[in-house]
Amino acid sequence: MAQPWRVAVVGGGIAGLAAAVQLRDRAPDGTEITVYEQSGALGGKLRTGELAGQPVEFGAESFLMRDPAGGESAAVALVRRLGLTDRIVHPTVGRAALALAGQLRPIPGGTLVGVPGDLATVTTVARPDAAADRDEGRPLLGPDADVSVGALVRSRFGDEVVDRLVDPMLGGVYAGRADDLSLVTTMPALARAARVEHTLVGAVRAAQAAAPRAPGAPVFGTLAGGLGTLVEAAARASGATLRRNAAVRELHPTPDGWRLTVGPTRDAEQVEVDAVVLAVPARPAARLLAGPAPELADTVGGLDYASVALVTLALPEPELPELSGFLVPSTEGLLIKASTFFTTKWGHLRRPDGLALVRASVGRYGEETLLQRTDEDLAATVHRELSAVLGVPLPAPVDGHVQRWGGALPQYTPGHAGRVAAARAALRVGHPTLALAGAAYDGVGIPVCVRSGATAADEIITALEGSAR
């Protein structure tokens, strides 16, 4: 009788947990799944804490409800699989603003991550160069080409659209610069349209038409009680053995699978498994690949990351605009790059005592030295800059929290998707029972990471079924 499969998932973030759930659902009964997490907590960048007596997110705040094709996102599908659908809540205030020249100006609607399909809609915040977006008789992007978002948009709409609109919107997600970030990875729908359309306006409109959204349908959702409930439910549903504080230090192929070296050097544990899902950031993944696939380690480990800090303040009855928050262009010279008015944006968090939770994101790629301040200094600077942007002195906070995420956000340079595809293709040939998953490869956001983990699990199942035959 065949022995049950043994699968190791290295990394207990949402991608690793999604892989474990998919393995439990699709692998044969009796499959032994073990999740190894280096830290003491599961969930990765999903972390629900408590401030002023109520749950608050110290990491990712929400998930997209729809996928790029207009269907249910992978995050919603996982929520449904875990029986948490009745916990989904949506923003009650969706309007956001840009902090420009000492004023809060509404972010124009109808754009694709800030890239307009109608230049007239953005003239309140930027002066687009409409004459530059000429039809030159060929698609904007070649069949296998990739460019930075900034390079494409600057060449077609001018600098102000990038600096005042696209850059702060991408910076709010990636903490990076539009001039450095890959179009194919960060805006795949626009990249697909750009391979057909001859103008950027046409490409934006085509991308929007390819993913229609019902009027009034919510774009984002989160879970009442916090996204930590998603982590806990996924861990339970996976039926996996959960090894916290268990660093996987080495990975070596064996005739029948893989040998993992787990734990400290002086008391290392050797674990034999049939397959491995590697769901950790790029650099630790590269260290583990250095033994079995050194030619891929440099490729995977070449991905750089930005560090950020999230400063959350509990403010007694502040004067806040009826906005979900605001973004700050890097040209404004502020430490804050984005702010969310939690208790305004999310109606389920509003309190009868008027206490408001406000979170600010601090840190852009290449500016890590600005984060080398004490928590108290960061909180004081955020409080001061929020007051300046809002034009009113905010009351002193009654509570606060600083969450630092060192090396948290991948910086996808042009060509990233091709490099990842080549690495995965090489693994399928040389090491088919080793799969890569997570934000390092497929993009940020809960739905992307969930889909990445589930896809890696499917690849492992296919490989093990093939070896059994």
UniProtKB/TrEMBL annotation:
<dbReference type="Pfam" id="PF01593">
    <property type="entry name" value="Amino_oxidase"/>
</dbReference>
<keyword id="KW-0274">FAD</keyword>
<comment type="pathway">
    <text>Porphyrin-containing compound metabolism; protoheme biosynthesis.</text>
</comment>
<dbReference type="GO" id="GO:0004729">
    <property type="term" value="F:oxygen-dependent protoporphyrinogen oxidase activity"/>
</dbReference>
<keyword id="KW-0963">Cytoplasm</keyword>
<dbReference type="InterPro" id="IPR004572">
    <property type="entry name" value="Protoporphyrinogen_oxidase"/>
</dbReference>
<comment type="similarity">
    <text>Belongs to the protoporphyrinogen/coproporphyrinogen oxidase family. Coproporphyrinogen III oxidase subfamily.</text>
</comment>
<keyword id="KW-0560">Oxidoreductase</keyword>
<protein>
    <recommendedName>
        <fullName>Coproporphyrinogen III oxidase</fullName>
        <ecNumber>1.3.3.15</ecNumber>
    </recommendedName>
</protein>
<dbReference type="GO" id="GO:0006783">
    <property type="term" value="P:heme biosynthetic process"/>
</dbReference>
<dbReference type="InterPro" id="IPR002937">
    <property type="entry name" value="Amino_oxidase"/>
</dbReference>
<keyword id="KW-0285">Flavoprotein</keyword>
<comment type="function">
    <text>Involved in coproporphyrin-dependent heme b biosynthesis. Catalyzes the oxidation of coproporphyrinogen III to coproporphyrin III.</text>
</comment>
<dbReference type="InterPro" id="IPR050464">
    <property type="entry name" value="Zeta_carotene_desat/Oxidored"/>
</dbReference>
<dbReference type="InterPro" id="IPR036188">
    <property type="entry name" value="FAD/NAD-bd_sf"/>
</dbReference>
<dbReference type="GO" id="GO:0005737">
    <property type="term" value="C:cytoplasm"/>
</dbReference>
<feature type="domain" description="Amine oxidase">
    <location>
        <begin position="14"/>
        <end position="461"/>
    </location>
</feature>
<keyword id="KW-0350">Heme biosynthesis</keyword>
